[in-house]
Amino acid sequence: MAKIIGVANQKGGVGKTTTAINLAASFAVLEYRTLLVDADPQANSTTGVGFDLQNITQSLYDCMANQTPAQNVILKSDIPNLDLIPRI
Fold first, then answer.
1. Is residue 66 in some structural domain?
2. What pTM was computed for the model?
């Protein structure tokens, strides 16, 4: 059964990205298949998981604006069980 956890706060600098990355990595280490979706315009979750923004060709934007299927955008991270839908 899938669970969705959202991390949100209108205030900047309160640790939303750090919390989301660490929570996703923790679930992945516990062997839960985990998908981290980076919706932040600064793309800090994408870089925080270890991806170079220069090497990403499709992102969450393509899913939303161009109706690209999410499966085509998902990137595998170096952490087993942790995947990412990037933001560029």
1. yes
2. 0.93
